[in-house]
Amino acid sequence: MDPPDLHQIADAFAAGIPNLMDQVDQLVRAIPPGSVATYGDLAKSLGDSVASRWVATYLLDPNCNVADLSHRVVRSTGEIGLHYSGSSETKARLLSAEEVFVANGSILLETYRTQLPPIVPSLAKLKAWQRDFACPEEPAFRLSDVEVIGGIDVSYGKEQAVSACHLTKSNGQSSLGTKTYIGEAKFPYITGYLAFREIRLHLNLLAQMQATGTLPDVLLVDGNGRLHPRRMGIATMLGGLTGIPTIGVAKKLICGVIRAPELRVGKWEPIIASKDELDEILGYATMPHTKTKHPIYVSRGFGVDDKSMQTILERCMAEHRSPEPIYWADRESRKLASTL
Length: 340
Hints:
Blueprint: H1 6-15, H2 20-29, E1 37-38, H3 39-46, H4 52-59, E2 73-74, H5 88-97, H6 109-112, H7 122-132, E3 148-156, E4 161-169, E5 175-183, H8 194-211, E6 218-222, H9 234-242, E7 246-250, E8 257-258, E9 269-274, E10 277-286, E11 296-302, H10 306-316, H11 324-337
């Protein structure tokens, strides 16, 4: 079977990503003077309350399109919260000018809360996209066929982002260089939705590498694979789209329970879905080396079995917390992003 055209896949993927900032702008503009909504209300309208922290961060940016109306969005407790000006007093004054009574930095939500207009719940649609994403059939993985290992990561500049893929020989240590791609990161960081922020950038980089015949045989991805609330983290989705065997390597545990009470170097401790679901292993926690107290969380992305995954990671570990291909991809992407 011919490999997929990654340029076409990148374009198709980008076409399915909504502009959440435009949606928040629409909602905030719909809050009438003398009324408020909460950050959580806006997030629920987008389709997932987990986005409330990002909504608050966005509205605290003085450059956002609705900064002059952002005083109408408050915390779920009734506290008015922060304002982009840096002054809660300014927010209180603006609300008072619209006849919203503020006392001790709080308001009565039951008095002033408005009903937001219905919009397309974009995050709910993205969640369904991940849940229903159909990976192609995974071919048998042969460790002996691995000649090049890649590590891929993204760093962010002020307006643009850099996807970098560092390549090593099959020993996971000998460098073959780094490839980079610079583009816009339009989708925000929201826990559980990393794929929609970074995959487009990764796909464009991998498309460039496909054109030059430099794709790796297996790809370590900074992020999760099956170790994900919907079993479809960025590593799994990226592998399913490209057909490249992938492994997710994360520094934060976003779901699951580690069986072992203590983690040790060289041990791969299973991460299960919950204490009641002992048979579903989502990934593994391991200590990279004795110089760190912080583990990494490793999970199958696409096309790699558990035993091969562990062997590859062990080849790639050195003195850093991250495996070498990801460490150098992170370092090179940060270096380039700092100039943007």
